[in-house]
Amino acid sequence: MRKDEEINIYLDKIEELEDIIMRLETLIPVEDVQKKSRKKRIMDSKLAIELDEKVKKLRELKDKMGFLRKENSQLRQDLEKIKFANSSSSRIKIEDLRPEPILNDLVKDLQDIVNNQRLIISKLKTSKVDKDDILEKLRDKEEEIKLLKSEISQLNHKKKEFKWF
């Protein structure tokens, strides 16, 4: 229950930040071609702000995944203690020793996201970034964040079901 509340708090923070970004985007005036360098600086700063926010969101998601992974292993240990106490034999099931495929997939996805973020940061530092390319990648990252949020909620739901058994 506490995890759901924390996730909801983080979702609210994300929505607030998105609203701030949209308001800031409306404040940027459209200027003439003569002031293109200023316009470019504004766009660069805007993209840098968005990138920083994406990096923060990614960090929060990674922290959540680490916490969920730790909690999952603790619950598995507790379940094994209960099973061992209830059974008279000392057999170990092979399927209990296998790592959970969902968590492995999520870890792989997070590693891919981190690598992509590092690539974007290095491109921004070298100033060889195409505006459309960054905007497309930002949209992709937002979709990935939504997918990861849904996977987190699914894992929380599975965790609740797991607690009942």
Detailed description of the structure:
It is a single chain. The protein has one domain (2-164). The longest helix has 51 residues, at 36-86. The mean pLDDT is 78. It is built from five helices and no strands. By secondary structure, it is an all-alpha fold. It starts with a helix and ends with a helix. 85% of the residues lie in helices and 0% in strands.
Anisotropy-based shape: elongated
Q: What is the helix tally?
A: 5
Task: Tell me the strand percentage band.
Answer: under 5%
Low-confidence stretches: none
Residue share in helix: over 70%
- How is the biggest beta sheet arranged? none
Number of domains: 1
**Gap between N and C termini, in Å?**
17 Å
β-strand number: 0
Structural class: mainly alpha
Question: Mean of the pLDDT scores?
Answer: 78
Question: How large is the radius of gyration?
Answer: 22 Å
- Listing every helix as H and every strand as E from the N terminus to the C terminus, the arrangement reads HHHHH
SSE inventory with pairings:
Blueprint: H1 2-27, H2 36-86, H3 94-97, H4 101-126, H5 131-164
What tags apply to this protein structure?
0% strand; elongated
How would you concisely characterize the structure shown here?
The chain has helices spanning 2-27, 36-86, 94-97, 101-126, 131-164.
